[in-house]
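Submission checklist for the structure archive. All mandatory fields must be present; incomplete records are returned to the submitter.

[x] Identifier: Sigma-70 family RNA polymerase sigma factor
[x] Organism: Paenibacillus ginsengarvi
[x] Residue count: 511
[x] Sequence attached
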Amino acid sequence: MHQTDMITRAAAGDQDALAQLIEVYRQEATLWARDILRDSHLAEDAVQESLLRLAAKLPGLRDPERFRPWLKRLVRRMAINMLRGAENRTKPFGELAESDDPHLVSRPDEPLQEILGRESRREAMNHFAALRGNAKRVMDAMEEGLQPDEAAASLGIARSNVYNLISRSRSKLNEERFRMEVDRYLASRRREGNPGRIVLEEPRFSRPYALLSVALLEVLRYDGETERPLTTIMGMTGDAFRIGISSGCDWRGLSTFDWSFAFYGAAERIGWSARCFGRPGRQQILPEQQVGVLRLIHGAVEAGRPAIVWNLTINEFDLVYGYDDSERVLLGRSHRPGVHRYTYESLGRSPESPGLFAAVLDRRTGAPSSVRTVLAGIVKQIRGDEPRVPGFSFGQAAYREWRNAVLENRLDPLGHAYQVALLSEAREHACRYLEQLSRDRSIRGEARSLVAAASKLYEQIYRTMLQLYPAFPFGMGGVTSNREHMAAGLKAAMEAEAEAAGCLEAALKRL
């Protein structure tokens, strides 16, 4: 497809054309962002945020031939905002407008962002006009420019009451911002003739979705891919070989990693393209970002596949398989019983579980990755060669942190029981997957023996984890008597993983 045609079709709402366009420019866009941010992972964040906005902004592009400089301006603007910290805080109302872009045109049904900002601010002020009594008097005083202490003295109201009224008013204003952004998004969906309600078949599950591969396998089932067992998905994506530990050694370790980085890699290895939003560390979400995630979810469900969303259920990957625009709710399932309903405006705003990640499979791109590519990815996973997440360690460093926590008596017993249970399952899959690979026709001679040896090492690690599990009893306040036993077990597992990585590296050289 000619690139101009691709841009025109993407602007008209063709999702396949949009996906192709993103694939063509993603690498170059990352370089543009990296020039400003000087950090590859932040650059990926900036590009992802830009691409989330691309679908909404593309219809306003006047000249398809100007797409590249227009996209470059969009990405660089996002990178500069991130550099200033603008994307990691909740902005006051009225600071959301973007600078004019000469390649964008305003259309009657899609006013420019600054016009929306003025209308939104006016609507929010109307919201506060409904206040009564002291609340209205305080807000009127603030509107006139008085400081809180001055307003308290002028109105004869206790200073603490003034601050309480301001806090509640700001909370209401923030709710208005999210509500109005969703209103505009749903209005655009109605204009475009999108379905108002779709509910797919309810997901099946047999275990918690704390492992990304479990959720991914379920999504693949919706597309008719039922031949791959969980062991294969766990191995190809690297989930079977991942280990992460928080600095506090609590239950978040194994399930906190750079989700977007991991999912893009996982999708590529199984022969799919993907779109994601979110990485660990984001504590707040902006209304525009929330709508971007809603757009991802709507697109996935309309394509017949659930979206994977992290932290709707604490520390699990939910599958969102339905929506109802009239009720403004998403329908999701986790391992916990029952169908869960999440309002559009609550997405990514839970105070109990900050941070949001959403991922969707776009389309098949070809055959799965080669055995060589998969093995190279596994070695990186074992070594902990993945993007940094503040407060967490990965690979061999994770084992060292875990062992130190044991020896220093700073374990969270419940969290570590959970960690050992998940790692036991993961390492059993690692053993089985490497055993399967050792029988692959593309692996011969000494390389086959080395992969088989790595499989045996992971069997040892699996059995070590099973022995460690009783050392982390549920319901006990501390771990003291068997500290040396636990430290020895973790040391043995760490050394076995390092040896397995060496076997796989040697096998790669012989392929």
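[x] Structure attached
Curator remark: The longest strand covers residues 317-324. DSSP finds 17 helices and nine strands in the chain.
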